[in-house]
Amino acid sequence: MDPSLSRRRFLAQGAGGLSAVWVSAHWPGLLAAATHAHHAAQSAAPPKFEFFTAEEAKEIEAICARIIPSDDTPGAREAGVVFFIDRGLATFGVDDQKTYREGLPELQARVTEMFSGFAKFSALTPEQQDQVLHSFDEPAEPGKAARPAARNLRRRPGAQNFFETLRQHTIVGFLIDPDYGGNRDGAGWKVVGRDREHTFQPPFGYYDKDYPGWESAAKEAEKK
Amino acid sequence: MTVDQPKYKTSDEVDFVIVGSGAAGGILAKELSTNGFRVVVLEQGPYLTEADFTHNEIEIFAQDKLTNHPKLQPTSFRKTPDERAKAQRALMYGRCVGGTSVHFTANFWRFHEIDFIERSKVGPIPGANLVDWPVTYADLEPYYTKVEWEIGVSGLAGSSPFDPPRSKPYPMPPLPVKSSGVLFERAARKLGWHPFPAPMAILSQARPGRSACVQCGYCLGFGCEVGAKSSSLVAAIRVAERTGRCEIRPNSYVHRIETDANGRAVGAVYFDEKRNTHLQKAKAVVVCANGAETPRLLLLSKNKQFPNGLANSSGVVGKNLMFNTYSSVTGVYEHPLNDYKGYCVSRVLHDFYELDHHKVGFYGGGGLDARYEWTPVSFAFGGMPPETLHWGKDFKATLAHNFSRTMEVSTHGTSLPVENNSFSLDPDLKDAWGLPGLCLTYKDHPDDLKLTNWLLERAHEVHEAAGAVKKWSFPAQEQQFGVHLLGTCRMGNDPKTSVINPDHRTHDVKNLFLCDGSSLVTSGRGQPTMTIMALAFRAADRITALAKRGEIGA
Description:
By secondary structure, chain A is mainly α. In chain A, 48% of the residues lie in helices and 0% in strands.
């Protein structure tokens, strides 16, 4: 796996002097997903894909749906993430096209390797799907053996890289401001508890709602 | 862009050409044009305004809409000069009219007295090139006050017992406290420390043409849609334009300062948007291109007369680079803070600004603050507990729970000037215009890392006293990437060891002035922009006095 895509390294760098935002910016390809998916994602008309075939889209959506699953609350599927990614790959995210084109068949090969008789990720049960994706997880500690599920499997760097790219794109498509494509109906924001308003007023949260004001707080502190 | 702007011809010898329109360049443009001079500002980036600023994370983080572009402007990194540099993104700065002040967080701490006289106070430090400034806090105080009143800084005078003396209170009250600020304030008081409302270059009260902060939550990385953030774009450039004497020329990439046979600067050579080359003539050149691009421009301007680069007889151009140290402890709380709402930082403390190096065993000092600077997307990548698997059911559940319940306690501290830490021209890398790219050489002084780890322990104590349910951090690591670009053309009285004199005039070229992060002699404790702006106001006074005495014009 491309070390620049390692979450571990990402966090380590973040701790080494950079805020998360700067590291995000420092991380090539992190958000090279797509914008302009707004209309596609929000359209009620039958979806028309620009980059994916209908069959590919079904597979991509199935993977996205394990990255951010649907449970009591919406997941990647309800947020229309696959449309966001499709539009992105057809517009300025063209650099990632190859990763998808080559990576998806590699991932499907891993499916067959792990579950003989199955050729498609979408045909597996959710539990089996998770097993396939877990086989691409990083080793728990640098230098240690890969996790058991990945043992005895053929190395598939193309699939690994594809999964990591798709993971990033899924998260962006789930959480980006809905005005810029993805995150259909603000589904992702509902999940994380982000209010949809564009501007806010205090009190913002639980701990500032009863704040007595600077002067009173200072006096209270003096009394103690 | 206003209709009032004059359009100077490049062959017109204007009074000043200013290279860069950021924190320093914007202020100098305003001051010099207000003082009656004809000014052209050459900015390499585009001219964007509030209408162009959005919350689009893709544009900001993936497309570098407001910042230098790694593909067009590649850079390299190495730890020490004997290593071979490898290509990697090494720095970030604002690349649009207003520069980095457009997208910064807007923390506006003044430097304290100690920052200017630290060498005298603590003595020499092995491995560091620490010296006193040729100016003191008292010299700069009137200009700090000017910054606060003229561009708009919110805060509460007297709220920190560690504050240096000030001649005037802040022009407007602090912004409303956030939940992170309340938790921080209570915890710090419990620990016997002295938290105070963060001074921010963000309006808490409206000013003509500028709204008070509307608490949208997109400060760091983003331009302000309502003009509340006191960037030089909204707070200085527009005043300069209204004088009718200042032209802002965007998409103008300066790559050489031209000199004549007498060793005087005659103007700035730049590429326009179509990559045609022009020479803008001027009586004097003021370079405010930031702590990386200013030394680069001097080095690119070398000629027979100045074989080491312009204004570099000392050999220190590009050296003594300081990034400041930064780190943070992330904490999760029981109830929603909703800190994604609103500006980033509402409470700060300066109890550790001046540490006794005999007691702690290392040199330096710093501040702590409570902050939240994530957007939803950047939180998912950078704000989650390290052991969380990064996809699937648990990922989603943790994301859903933590997004509104997380805050950081961040540490901000000194970086010691180290001679080897530098920006230089990479012998192999070329930018999209065919010019040598920047090579960063950087290895934190060991004391900087000790300081950061020490401050991190204090940050853990804050979270603990505040009742965090969970908290984590990572040990300080050597930096390989900078956003505070300081010290690379340091100010001093001795032409052998500094690049500019206290008037910001280069020792070597009489009509060449430098003012930006490169001018700083020490790093302060982490929030340099206010000092850069104060220096710019002061430089404008000095340069105006010199010009009026006839000491600049040919």
